[in-house]
Amino acid sequence: MPVSSSTPGPLSLRSLAALLRSLLLVVVLLGCAVAPARADGGALFEQHCAGCHVNGSNIIRRGKTLRMAALERQGLASPEAIATVIQAGIGQMSPYGSVLGDDGVQQVATWVWQQAELGWPKSS
Predict the structure, then answer these.
(1) Ranges of H-type helices in 1-123
(2) Nearest alpha-carbon partner for 49 in 102, 101, 95
(3) Ramachandran region of residue 12, left (φ > 0), alpha (ψ -120 to 50) or beta?
(4) pTM of the model
(5) What ranges do the domains of the chain cover?
(6) Which of 10, 45, 99, 112 is most deeply packed, by most CB within 10 A?
(7) 37-118: which CATH topology?
(8) How far apart are CA 73 and CA 71, in angstroms?
(9) In the structure, what pLDDT confidence band is assigned to residue 109 with cuts at 50, 70 and 90?
């Protein structure tokens, strides 16, 4: 009975291509699993918040924007603090907790925080 070598040989071009396709598929699938949460926060913001907070501004009270400096000035320098305001409302802003639900509140708060960190880039 012949003894085979247990040392693997070099990867063939075909094996390497198959490995790369598999890795690409994993990356795409992971990206699809993560992207909807970000998209949902933005979509919920557009649906429920953008009427007053277009691009992070505030059409009702000019100084109460969603820009980082204003959030910090108001003591809202975290996604959790923003979620509290979305949930319960503040000043002239109505509460949206019952409209968005807990998951929606968290998604919008995270999305708002990310936009504030980015300086509210205008969407094209």
Answers:
(1) 13-48, 68-73, 79-88, 97-118
(2) 95
(3) beta
(4) 0.67
(5) 37-118
(6) 112
(7) Cytochrome Bc1 Complex; Chain D, domain 2 (1.10.760)
(8) 5
(9) very high
State the pLDDT at residue 111: 97
Q: How far is CA 82 from CA 13, 38, 62, 77, 89, in A?
A: 52, 16, 18, 8, 10
Q: Select from 52, 72, 47, 49 the least CA-distant residue to 62.
A: 52
* CB-based contact 116:65 (threshold 8 Å): no
* CA separation for the pair 46, 93 (Å, rounded): 16
pLDDT at 75: 95
Specify the 3-state DSSP secondary structure of 29: helix
Average the pLDDT over 78-93 and give the result: 96
Q: How many CA atoms lie within 13 A of 30 on its CB side?
A: 6
